[in-house]
Protein: prostaglandin-endoperoxide synthase
Amino acid sequence: MITMEAFGGRRLHIAVVLAVVAVLWSVNTRSPPDSIVRTNADYDPCCAYPCDNQGVCLSYPDRSYVCDCTNTGFSGINCTSADFLTWVHHSLKPDPEKLHNLLTSDWWLWDVVNNVPFLSDMAMKYIFISRGDQVDSPVRFESDHSYTTLDAYFNETYFGRTLPPVPDHCPTPMGVAGPKQLPDVDELIKRVFLRRKFIPDPHDTNLLFQYYAQHFTHQFFRTNYTKGPQFTKGLGGVDSSHVYGVTEHHRRAIRLNKDGKLKYQIIDGEHFPPYIKDTPGLDMELPPYVPVNADTTFALGHPFYAMLPGLFVYSVIWMREHNRVCEVLKDEHPDWDDERLYHTAKLIITGEVIKITIEDYVQHLSQYKVRLRFKPDVIHGSRFQFHNRINVEFDHLYHWHPLVPDGIKVNESYYTVMDMAFSVKPVFVHGLDNFIRAMASNRAGKLSARNHGKATVPFLRKMLLNSRTIRFRGINEYRKRFGLKTFTDFMDLTGDEELARDLQDLYGDIEAVEFYVGLLTERDSPSLTPLAMVNIGGPWSVKGLIANPICSPHWWKPSTFGGDRGFEIVQTASLQKLLCNNMKSGCEGISFKVPPGTA
Amino acid sequence: MITMEAFGGRRLHIAVVLAVVAVLWSVNTRSPPDSIVRTNADYDPCCAYPCDNQGVCLSYPDRSYVCDCTNTGFSGINCTSADFLTWVHHSLKPDPEKLHNLLTSDWWLWDVVNNVPFLSDMAMKYIFISRGDQVDSPVRFESDHSYTTLDAYFNETYFGRTLPPVPDHCPTPMGVAGPKQLPDVDELIKRVFLRRKFIPDPHDTNLLFQYYAQHFTHQFFRTNYTKGPQFTKGLGGVDSSHVYGVTEHHRRAIRLNKDGKLKYQIIDGEHFPPYIKDTPGLDMELPPYVPVNADTTFALGHPFYAMLPGLFVYSVIWMREHNRVCEVLKDEHPDWDDERLYHTAKLIITGEVIKITIEDYVQHLSQYKVRLRFKPDVIHGSRFQFHNRINVEFDHLYHWHPLVPDGIKVNESYYTVMDMAFSVKPVFVHGLDNFIRAMASNRAGKLSARNHGKATVPFLRKMLLNSRTIRFRGINEYRKRFGLKTFTDFMDLTGDEELARDLQDLYGDIEAVEFYVGLLTERDSPSLTPLAMVNIGGPWSVKGLIANPICSPHWWKPSTFGGDRGFEIVQTASLQKLLCNNMKSGCEGISFKVPPGTA
Structure:
């Protein structure tokens, strides 16, 4: 029975809700009470990073400081007191580690979410927006200044920066913690990174995955070494320059100028990219030590990709896919000229790249049991910002050389990593399809400490030195920045006594552990990488994929992709289809995992 | 008395609301029913722009077409049927002309809005978001392709484009309407634009306003004539490059490298920028016909600004303001180095530029009686996109040479426009302060047809020719794009019989009237410009100002501007203060209007 009391109760209820809303409003809009904190430090107190929750530290010559907590959702002298709404939000938000374990476990709810479109959309919206919120957009920092500059935004030759550099005048390279001099890089590599014995990835990851990672990411990781490690030649995101080239000059050189297609040549009845001699004017921009022969070196969107067979394979596949898409478009639009076919195919390829990266690549990488979907429309109308800049820390994080094994078995031949450097010959010795099958059946290494092959040590060494040149903060500062708990000691970080001892020897203080070192030495997680790598790399990755212009409301429609058929190619793309459509002899069972039963 | 019926009625009410929500949901999420339309046209049917409400037209060789209505809020073969939510939204939205008349009238409600912060914030939020929604962000088009390309976004040397170019293969330059050949530019200029007799602006606008417009906008209107009228050398927005220079090289050349300041010299006891001889390495990038003398030409953020006294005056004032702000910052932060003082002062200057542009300049330009406020925090957390690109149509729209009078009276001297070209000597003959007072007391011209002075005709001519080269659509297409009713005939456009007759002679068809021609020949509105100029320029302008990175949540806080004092300089900036702080002899009564009683 419904009674008057019930109704009176409802009115009371409404009144309470209104009162709460009023309180929340006032809590949420009051200005943050900045207070000067005086210290006895004999250094700039901001070097100790006293401000939590992304509060910005400003210090004064008398060794006092202020935390600017504006728009952080926190207040108090060190931005540690959650405002009411922030408190509610944080109370509802699960602990990142628990959430990660849940997302990677076989929970019955994921079956429901994966099969009910409405719930799946909600899950993707949550993922896209919560990850996107963790990335400054517009970008605020670059590597030449430890404070916000207008240049960080307007000078796009800078890589962005998530945390500004440690100021030069701080007592130690990490701020105030740790030794005055960081450990010798070579000793660090020897004790922490170098592979003793190849450790395969426990998730059956194969080399098709490893090379996908490399091929995909080097469209936007393009350090400009002429200018310095803080600068990039890239354009800030998924621009498909790994297929087409990063300059208009380069793009023109590899176009066929007919039917929208890329140049190709036929070798043994199969389509391959042209040689450099057939692409006049192509500027390779490779370091002088890279051997280039115009008669036998292939001309690709990314010249470096002609130096490694795995990267070459993907370049061939994407070139074929582009030309295949051009044929579909020409069939649909026989009146379109070369220019329109080319540009529209490029939009479709960009869509395919994003779709495959999210649904095949990140799905495998994360080992999430929630099915990831490329559904940009779920965030239309939200606060998500459709613009991206690459952060230099993302480039460093993505140094995934431990994935690279010591060698690869193709049919009955065995090639070491160095056997395959600077030459794509093995692809032609065995044939493209056989080489792809070999990439699929060779195991990639585990992304962990002590699994870095000798051959790629120079890249690791250079990157570690660069991170010191541009003064990265330590791993714990990055963990705080991305809402993860900080490590309390070396065992807490590694879960491995020997490794913990080595790191203790090298750094002395957990707060001094460098960014990349902390990422790679963290204890295992259910994903291919340790937890921080997922939860720090994830936001940059999601932002880079979903902030692409094609995902925005005015672009995400059939006409952008030449009509329904083009749009459907994007929306149904998969690694499987990409290979099936572009391998001569079939693609059965090829995925990012070695076939069942592989040793 | 509350009865059970009332409660039952409430349940019914809730049920009805739920049902309506469900219907809306289904209406809003169904995919748009694209239908192929067959035509008998002997041309590409998309040349007739059949798709309304920003639907995208795709045609097929059999002369059929499809309108892609995705994400427009409309459906139907030509995207003319409003979805339910769109219909509700449109029903609530006032007609733009009526709204404009209301905004510019002395209505009692504006007094309330102006004086109640909560309502004022709501008004500004509405203005920022509704204007921002009208600009594609990310930008979709450039001038070399009549369809969406990835390059429009990633190649930032392109100006953006709001409506794509008329395809080359269309029957007439405007699509299907009008003559095969557009009217001769010189005849057009003579009959429509050329000043018969100087018409002063009826809102008492002075030359301080005119030069502000020019000085402010040329930080982002920087056509790259070496590459073509579709390319820019600018960085996409309010980057303060008009004060500091657009390249790092340029910026370095005019820095003092001490206390964050810009270089200066003292002339007659006042601070002025240095001469070119004192800025080694400065690249002027001026056309060869511009006379530059290293010993007497001033070195400014924008070299061209040393050629006209009005632009020079603003350059001097902003240089002084920058150096003044550096002193305030140094007083607050005596430990900061030159670099940090410079970059932080630049952030403050950028904030001042935006504040003064919105609250003084746009306020006067629009003649709105609602007080415009620079409150970026009102849109934090909304769908507003904090990234901007300059559209080439905005550059064309801003050709406001009718503001320029035939000459200017300074004290007892009279200078024609040509007397003052390429020389800033008059500033020194009379003194800076006197020259500023002269700018304030000379009337600017009315922004209308038949008020374009002879001296600046070459700029108009070049711009009109450029708009044909890059194939602008006609004014009515732009009016549709921005939600304005289209003109039905020439009298409807001009409200002036003679002008209507001339335009009829020249174009024959109202649909063939060019963009800029239509903007300038429209009948008067209560603003300084006709209605379309406000309602088309407004969105680009608001977007450019509010999408600046400093307005975004992570930037808009005291620490970005060096602390509370810096933030306060931004938040209290005004034209009045800018002048008072940087003129030697006081600034009383100087505004964007001539003093009361001026003839």
User: Anything to note?
Assistant: Strands of chain A lie at 37-38, 56-59, 64-68, 74-75, 81-82, 265-267, 270-272, 407-410, 413-416.
